[in-house]
UniProtKB/TrEMBL annotation:
Keywords: Repeat
Name assigned to this protein: Armadillo-type protein
Pumilio repeat boundaries on the chain: 1-31, 32-67, 68-104, 105-140, 170-205, 206-241, 242-279
Residue span(s) of domain PUM-HD: 1-305
Pfam family, one: PUF
One Gene Ontology term, aspect cellular component: cytoplasm
Organism the protein comes from: Dimargaris cristalligena
Keyword Repeat set for record: yes
CDD domains named among the record's database cross-references: Pumilio
Region (Disordered): 312-331
InterPro entries, alphabetized: ARM-like, ARM-type_fold, PUM-HD, Pumilio_RNA-bd, Pumilio_RNA-bd_rpt
Length: 331
């Protein structure tokens, strides 16, 4: 039977026996094939029988298969024939113990698998077949990995529409962690760059209560700027509102990262919130006017006719007070 497995016609004959009389033939074929299962999974013909056997065998036999191939699962997954057999095995995993064994076997090599022509299909099968919780090992491995974050982006590029939705849902669920990571933040930005409101809006809304804190961090501040630019009008208002309600706006204006977020908010917020923001900035502006970012913020305000008028009134009042006998420093 072993030699039949590695022959084109013999392999087809055995598959047909499994299909026509599984109760009678599965135990016989399983007994003969099982000792050679690892080898046959990468055989040009034997892999088809392995796929069929995984489909028709019972739960106990499937557990034995998972256990015997676990130590070689990475090498099998990287093989052009083996990847098909591994995908079929993942598709028919039937209990928690089998799933756990498969995850343990794949966990250490997620990024190499995704980068591989054959191995990436195994990871995609996991994404399709396993639950989000069970797939957490994939997201943990790639989203915050120097090369993995690029791989994750390629996964989104090449995913089917359902796969793409699943990937984006996971990014959204882990957005607060990813946005603060040196590499994970690029994954968040990549989703925003897809120009899909159905993806971007739920993602951006993850940050609406943490805008100020995220604006003061190196990696996340870039993402918050992009969120303000890319958000739908109603969501943008929530982002800017978090800036307006911050009692420590001066700290944001003086911060080397957050000041850029303020500048972006001035550029993209609607007229009502822009005016509110300028009103909040006006009392602080004299203290930061001579700093590089203070000059840029003042320049942005002056480009807005309504805001420039407000600023002019504020400057006139300051000038008037400065020349009054009561406040004169020369008195």
């Amino acid at each position: 039977m072993y030699s039949l497995c590695k022959d084109q016609h013999g392999c087809r004959f055995l598959q047909k026996q499994l299909e026509e009389s599984p109760e009678k033939n599965v135990p016989v074929i399983f007994k003969e094939v099982f000792p050679h299962f690892v080898e046959l999974m990468t055989d040009p013909f034997g892999n088809y029988l392995c796929q069929k056997l995984v489909e028709y065998c019972n739960d106990e036999q499937r557990t034995q298969i998972v256990d015997i191939v676990a130590s070689e699962l990475i090498n099998i997954s990287l093989n052009m024939h083996g990847t098909r057999a591994v995908q079929k095995m993942i598709e028919f995993l039937s209990n928690k113990a089998q799933i756990r064994a498969a995850i343990i076997a794949l966990k250490a090599s997620v990024v190499p698998l995704i980068k591989d022509l054959n191995g990436n299909h195994v990871i995609q099968k996991c994404l399709n077949r396993l639950t989000s919780e069970e797939n957490q090992f994939i997201y943990d491995a790639v989203a915050t990995h120097r090369h993995g974050c690029c791989v994750f982006q390629r996964c989104i590029d090449h995913a089917s529409e359902p796969q793409k939705h699943q990937l984006v849902r996971e990014v959204t669920a882990n957005a607060l962690m990813l946005v603060q990571d040196p590499f994970g933040n690029y994954v968040v930005q990549y989703v925003l760059d897809l120009n899909r409101p159905d993806f971007a809006d739920p993602l951006i809304r993850q940050f609406t209560r943490d805008v100020c804190a995220l604006s003061m961090q190196k990696f996340s501040s870039n993402v918050i700027e992009k969120c303000i630019r890319a958000a739908e009008a109603s969501t943008r208002r929530l982002l800017v509102a978090d800036l307006l309600t911050n009692p420590h706006l001066e700290d944001l204006l003086k911060d080397s990262f957050a000041n850029y977020v303020i500048q972006t908010a001035l550029d993209f917020s609607d007229q009502e919130q822009r005016t509110q923001l300028i009103e909040a900035i006006r009392p602080i502006l004299p203290a930061i006017r001579n700093t590089p970012y203070g000059k840029r913020i003042q320049s942005k305000i002056q480009r807005d006719p309504q805001a420039a008028a407000l600023l002019s009134e504020s400057n006139s009042a300051v000038h008037s007070r400065a020349n009054s006998p009561i406040l004169s420093p020369h008195r």
